[in-house]
Design goal:
Blueprint (H helix, E strand, L loop, with lengths): L2 E5 L4 H12 L3 E6 L2 H8 L5 E5 L5 H7 L5 E4 L8 H18 L3 E6 L11 E2 L10 H15 L4 E5 L2 E3 L7 H10 L4 E4 L5 E6 H12 L8 E3 L5 E3 H12 L5 E4 L1 H8 L3 H8 L2 H4 L3 E2 L2 H6 L8 H14 L2
Parallel strand pairs: 1-2, 1-4, 2-3, 4-5, 5-7, 6-14, 7-11, 8-10, 9-13
Antiparallel strand pairs: 10-12
Helix pairs in contact: 1-7, 4-5, 8-13, 9-10
Length: 311
C-alpha cells in the first residue's frame, strides 16, 4: 500500500487509522466534513493530506480517491439517518472504489449478529439481527459482498480511546475528566467488551496489507471483558476522582426518547448492555498473529490524558 484514503477521519476509529497508516510511512488522505477539526488533528503530519468533503457527494469522493490503492470506511452518521442514508453512503463508496480500482477496508460494529447465543461470537456465527439497525447493517454488508470491489469487513465491539467522542464510555469519562458527577450507561455489574481504538486501527491496517484478507469478515475483540464497576474503580485509581457515578437505565433513555428521536433509536440497541456480545478473535490470530490488546488500565489512562490535553 502506497496511498490510502480514510473516510470519517475525524472520528474515533478514523483518527486512529490515519495515525496508524502514517506511522507505517503510508501517505494518507484524511477525509471528513469539517476542515477545522481535520487541521487540529493532522496539520503537523507531513504524511497526511487533509480533504474536506461529503460522502454523499460522489464528486467529493471521486476527487479524494485519486491515486489511492486502499479506502478505509470509518464514516458514520446519526442513527436516525441510517435507514434512508446508510445504503446510499455505501453505494457511493463502492462506486468510488470500483472506479479507482481501490480495495476497501470497512469498520463495522456487531449489530448484524443480533442477540448473543452465549459464548464467543465468531465469523461463522449466522447473522440474525433482531433490530432495525442490525438489519440495515446486514443490508449494507450484502451490498458490499454483491459488488465487484475487493473488500474486507472488520467487526469491532464498542470503541474508546483518543478522539473517540461519540461513544458510551466517552459519555462517562467526559464528566470525570471535568471532575463532575458522572453516569454510566447500563448496569455497572455487567461485564462487556470494549476496544481501544489504536488497537483496532493496528488490526485493520494489518489486515488491509494482506491480499488474502479481502473478501472476508474479521472479528477484532478487545482486551477481554470488563464491568462498569471495574471501569469506574480503575478510573478512580488513575485520576483520584471521588464523585458519584450513577447508572443510566433503559427506562431513563426511553423517557428521553419521548422528546428526542435519537434517544428513541438508542433504546433499541440497549440490549447490548444487558446481553453483551463477546467476539472470538481466533481467525485473526491464526492469519496475522496476536491481536493488539492494550490493557483497560493503560487504555483508559491514555484516553484520559488525551482528553485533558484537548479540553
Amino acid at each position: 500500500m502506497q496511498k490510502a484514503l480514510v473516510l470519517g477521519a475525524s472520528g474515533g476509529m478514523g483518527y486512529s487509522i490515519v495515525k496508524e497508516l502514517s506511522s507505517r510511512g503510508i501517505m494518507v488522505t484524511a477525509f471528513a466534513r469539517t476542515r477545522e477539526k481535520l487541521e487540529k488533528l493532522f496539520a503537523d503530519d507531513a504524511n497526511i493530506t487533509i480533504y474536506t468533503g461529503d460522502v454523499f457527494r460522489i464528486d467529493d469522493l471521486d476527487e479524494a480517491a485519486k491515486g489511492v490503492d486502499t479506502i478505509f470506511q470509518s464514516c458514520n452518521i446519526p442513527y436516525v439517518e441510517w435507514e434512508e442514508k446508510l445504503p446510499i453512503m455505501m453505494s457511493n463508496i463502492l462506486q468510488t472504489a470500483e472506479k479507482h480500482s481501490a480495495k476497501l477496508a470497512i469498520v463495522d460494529n456487531i449489530y448484524a449478529y443480533g442477540r448473543s447465543r452465549g459464548g464467543k461470537t465468531s465469523e461463522t456465527t449466522v447473522k440474525n439481527p433482531h433490530t432495525k439497525k442490525g438489519r440495515i447493517r446486514l443490508e449494507v454488508e450484502n451490498l458490499v459482498k454483491e459488488s465487484k470491489v475487493l473488500a474486507l469487513i472488520a467487526h469491532f465491539p464498542d470503541f474508546y480511546g483518543p478522539n473517540a467522542e461519540n461513544t458510551i464510555l466517552n459519555y462517562t469519562l467526559l464528566n470525570i475528566v471535568e471532575d463532575k458527577n458522572s453516569s454510566f450507561v447500563g448496569k455497572q455489574s455487567i461485564s462487556r467488551e470494549f476496544i481501544y481504538t489504536p488497537d483496532g486501527a493496528k488490526a485493520i491496517v494489518s489486515l488491509s496489507l494482506k491480499e488474502k484478507a479481502y473478501g472476508q469478515n474479521w472479528n477484532i475483540p478487545g482486551f477481554g471483558t470488563i464491568s462498569g464497576d471495574e471501569i469506574v474503580k480503575t478510573v478512580r485509581e488513575i485520576t483520584g476522582y471521588q464523585k458519584g457515578v450513577s447508572t443510566v437505565s433503559k427506562n431513563m433513555i426511553r423517557f428521553l426518547g419521548l422528546f428526542n428521536r435519537q434517544m428513541r433509536e438508542v433504546v433499541e440497541m440497549f440490549y447490548l448492555n444487558e446481553e453483551p456480545i463477546v467476539l472470538n478473535g481466533e481467525k485473526y490470530e491464526n492469519f496475522i498473529g496476536p491481536i493488539p490488546r492494550t490493557s483497560y488500565r493503560e487504555g483508559l489512562r491514555q484516553t484520559i490524558e488525551y482528553m485533558k490535553q484537548t479540553q
